[in-house]
Design a protein that fits this description.
single chain, 441 residues, mainly beta, Immunoglobulin-like, six-stranded parallel beta barrel, five-stranded antiparallel β-sheet, 2 helices, elongated
Length: 441
């Protein structure tokens, strides 16, 4: 008898018309003599959605293969599923049959097929996306100038490698706490769940509209959300973020070139360079936001939050503009580095307005103590008290967390509910960051 490394080869969800990733298993001859495998074939034959390759020989059937004594071979498998005309995933199955002189054995093949709305390098006009089935973007997508894309609750958007979601028009995303809208890469295997850099990000271009994102998860990109571009006379984008999570980015979570951002209950984690990068001035307000940059893939040398009034185009060219405001209230800025806040001013005669009120800021306390104009009621000596930093991370607060009850009441009244939909006013003492501690939970 042959032996196999698996008895069933299972594929994660496969988008229809789009081929799967290649999976494989091993076949072993544990005996001290050669074995002739008379046939290796797909039970479904040429009609099977699966494809096999056995030790470099393509199927659907391979005949008279000699597997040497105490040796093994690889069998590689792919699957492409035809459109199902179904909104829900359906199970597709087959098996690979191995026939020797003495036995017939098989390895089962299972895959879930999911129909999608496929958008391949398209520029789209005004429309609404609903959650009937996922959206898959190949070769980028752009919402055209003057057009509006509305995305309803529960919509899942998958973007293929190197794809970018460009906004020349307006983006309105209307997720809910129970059914958020998700932007992520299209590799659905479990091993890719937390891998950054699988697509480029959401890019809001100058001259676009007033964007609103509510109850949204952005995962596994290079730069999760980016605002603005250079050398254009069009105004920089305006973006409102409410209950947004940005995680697993190779470069930055939220970056801006002179844009305007209003953010409430924003959580940004695991970014290779910056969690928040604000350049060339702009106008920003962050209330009850949590930045927790515990990136582990490389040695990060940049602060989690960086604020500047300039953009360095090259060694010989630096552009600058007024930082009208960068206000942070009841926020947490934390990470692996000793200091996670950076401020850099180019134009000493321009406006450089920033203020942190009732915030936890990772850094030496004397950095904030002697500047009451810009730092008020700052905490820095004790870790904020997250549930878990790793495996898996959870940036809610422990009941005994230092950040508990440290928030300013007037700021909390502007954001009365936390990222999970819980009231932060019920106990009369709001916590710092995006999550409120709920003792009974």
């Amino acid at each position: 008898m042959l032996e196999f490394s698996v008895d069933t080869l299972v594929f994660d969800t496969v988008f229809t018309t789009i081929g799967s990733a290649t999976r494989h298993f091993k076949v072993f001859n544990r005996h001290s003599y050669d074995m002739v495998i008379r046939s290796i074939r797909l039970a479904g034959g040429t009609e099977s959605p699966f494809r096999i390759n056995s030790d470099g020989i393509a199927g659907p059937e391979i005949r008279d293969y000699t597997l040497r004594a105490n040796d093994s071979m690889f069998v590689f498998v792919e699957v492409t599923i035809d459109p199902l005309e179904e909104d829900n995933p359906l199970l597709v199955s087959d098996s690979i049959v191995f026939a020797t002189e003495n036995a017939r054995q098989d390895v089962d093949l299972l895959a879930w097929g999911q129909d999608v709305h496929l958008l391949n390098g398209e520029t789209i006009t005004t429309r609404t996306w609903t959650s009937d089935k996922p959206y898959l973007v190949y070769n980028s997508l752009q919402v055209d100038t003057g057009q509006v894309l509305t995305i309803e609750e529960g919509v899942q958007i998958y973007l293929h490698r190197f794809s970018t979601f460009y906004l020349a028009g307006t983006l309105l995303v209307k997720g809910t706490v129970e059914n958020p809208v998700v932007f992520q890469g299209d590799r659905l295997e479990t091993m890719y769940r937390d891998i950054p850099g699988q697509w480029n990000g959401l890019y809001f271009l100058n001259g676009s509209g007033e964007h609103e994102l509510e109850n949204v998860l952005v995962r596994n990109a290079s730069s999760g959300i980016h605002l603005g571009n250079l050398f254009t006379g069009d105004p920089a984008p305006h973006l409102t973020l409410k209950n947004v999570v940005i995680e697993h980015m190779t470069y930055s979570g939220l970056s801006s070139i002179g844009g305007t951002v209003r953010a409430e209950n924003l959580l940004i984690t695991d970014c290779g360079h910056y969690s928040i990068l604000l350049t060339l001035g702009g106008d920003y307000r962050f209330l009850h936001c949590t930045v927790a940059n515990y990136w582990t893939y490389t040695a990060r040398t940049t602060p989690a939050v960086m604020i500047t009034d300039y953009y360095r185009v090259s060694d010989d060219q630096v552009l600058s503009a007024d930082l009208v405001a960068a206000e942070f209230g009841n926020c947490i800025i934390d990470g692996r580095r000793d200091t996670e806040l950076g401020l850099s001013r180019w134009n000493e005669e321009g406006v450089f307005g920033y203020r942190f009120s009732s915030c936890y800021l990772k850094g030496p306390s004397d950095l904030f103590a002697n500047d009451p104009e810009h730092f008020e009621n700052i905490f820095s000596d004790t870790a904020p008290g997250f549930v878990s930093l790793y495996d898996p991370p959870d940036f809610a607060l422990l009941p005994e967390a230092f950040a508990r009850d440290k928030g300013d009441w007037e700021i909390a009244q502007q954001v009365p509910f936390d990222l999970a939909g819980n009231s932060r006013l019920s106990d009369g003492a709001p916590d710092l960051g995006a999550y409120e501690i709920i003792p009974e939970k």
